[in-house]
Amino acid sequence: MQIAIDGPSGAGKSSVAKVVAAKMGLVYVDTGALYRTVGYYVREAGVAREDAAGIVACLPHIEIEVRYENGAQHVYLNGEDLGDRIREPEISMYASAVSAVPDVRGFLLDTQRNIAAKNSVIMDGRDIGTVILPNAEVKIFLTASDEARARRRTSELQAKGLDVKFEDVLREMRERDHNDSHREIAPAIAAKDAVLLDNSNMTVEETANAVIALARKTLEA
Ligand code: DC
């Protein structure tokens, strides 16, 4: 079983996917964490976001391993679990920048496909339905209004103890979404066979139930 959830940042992909994974016994794969991990390394290496050649030169020094511990995904960078350090707003911008570099996408491809080959998964990202799992049984493109998404992202970051303002989160979110959906390689767009779901006025639970209903319908068909 493969469920692909794509969509812009703050649409609730990870919250929804976690609930669906728990209810359906699937492994939840957060692919954004992989790009964030590469972005983290690049920032630590002092390479500028715009420096595509510098980003590519970092790749031979990066070893990424994904482990599942007590049902939760942990991404190890050269043997170290970075935890919430990859969630900082600056790393979001680095993740978006490195994700537009074709070599980075190629570098992370096998890691993502290998997990899906070994497990029944619900995977979220930007290109899951279009590139990573083109044969997924269920494909969802999850969206919400800019304001709803920025509000959720702001609360999420504040709950983690980060001192962020709604206006800054909204501005950076729009910049990142523009980059992610307009890049040449694997842009964040809905697959032709994806179901579009706008959850601006839905709770996580309601959205998860809608995804589960779609999955059951597909399985029964
Ligand atoms: O889902 P996220 O916000 O953690 O993702 C961080 C960045 O990584 C996002 O701005 C674009 C990139 N990304 C991608 O290009 N493809 C994916 N499948 C997942 C994330």
- End-to-end CA span: 14 Å
Could you report the average pLDDT, rounded to the nearest whole number? 96
Major β-sheet strand ordering: 2-6-1-7-8
Strand content: 15-25%
Overall outline: globular
Give the total of beta strands. Answer: 8
Residue windows where pLDDT falls under 50 for at least 5 positions = none
- Give the SSE order as H and E letters: EHEHHEEEHHEHEHHEH
Give the distinct bound molecules.
Answer: 2'-deoxycytidine-5'-monophosphate
User: By helix and strand content, what is the structural category?
Assistant: alpha/beta
Rounded to an integer in angstroms, the radius of gyration calculated over CA atoms is 17 Å
Number of continuous helical runs: 9
Structure in words:
- The structure is a single chain.
- This protein is an alpha/beta fold.
- It contains 9 helices and 8 strands.
- The model has no long low-confidence stretch (mean pLDDT 96).
List keywords for this structure.
three-stranded antiparallel β-sheet; binds 2'-deoxycytidine-5'-monophosphate; alpha/beta; 9 helices; 221 residues
